[in-house]
Amino acid sequence: MIGYLRGELLARSEKGALVLTASGVGYEVRLSASVAAGLPAVGQEVDFFVHTSVREDAIELFGFPCLEDRATFEVLIGIPKLGPKTALSILSVYDAPALRQVCAGDDPGPLARVPGIGKKSAQRIFVELKYKMDMTQAGLPPSRTGAAPTVFSDALAGLVNLGYPEGQAGAVLRGILDAEPDLDVSQALRQALKKLAGERT
């Protein structure tokens, strides 16, 4: 896997940049719009921290100016139904520190400002992202997959299917799993339902 790339900016491409390395190999690197806008002149040296995506039909490189942005991208693509294109769109509007600021609040509205993300999707992404970033800060990288993020996603889906608002259900689940991270889905659901029922009375 390619994790870092340095070379000459050979050309700007529709997806981002073509980078020519010292060994004479050129790589196409996909970039967020904000990073692409800040590229130097063709012929200048560029370097990126890279996330390598391997699929059956393609290998794609995604470039980032710092490790924090790459880690945030990997958190984003770990969210169900959120692909690399949407993740780059989010990072085009909010870099990693700005996104953490968004998640530190209680309003998913800023995510709805990202092109292609509506209010409902913004709410879902906000709840997932808030929890996953909390896990990262606790030293448990969700992008490398752990039990808790999967439990959170599955339990949240169950609560939403039962008619609970996604924001309220996500907040309750975060509190439960922060206190008891080893719970399985059924245990988390039982505790969440008990707490949500108490909030309704």
Summarize the entry for a quick read.
The protein is α+β, with helices and mostly antiparallel strands and 201 residues long.
Question: What can you see in these coordinates?
Answer:
Mean pLDDT is 85; it is low at 138-147. 32% of the residues are buried. The termini are far apart. The protein has helices at residues 33-37, 67-77, 84-93, 96-104, 119-137, 147-161, 166-179, 185-200; strands at residues 4-12, 16-20, 26-30, 45-54, 59-64. The protein contains eight helices and five strands. It is elongated. The protein has three domains: 4-64, Nucleic acid-binding proteins (OB fold (Dihydrolipoamide Acetyltransferase, E2P), Beta Barrel); 67-139, 5' to 3' exonuclease, C-terminal subdomain (DNA polymerase, domain 1), CATH 1.10.150; 146-201, Ubiquitin-associated (UBA) domain (Helicase, Ruva Protein, domain 3), CATH 1.10.8.10. With 201 residues, the chain is α+β, with helices and mostly antiparallel strands. Strand 2 and strand 3 form a beta hairpin. The chain has a five-stranded mixed beta barrel. Helix 7 (166-179) packs across helix 8.
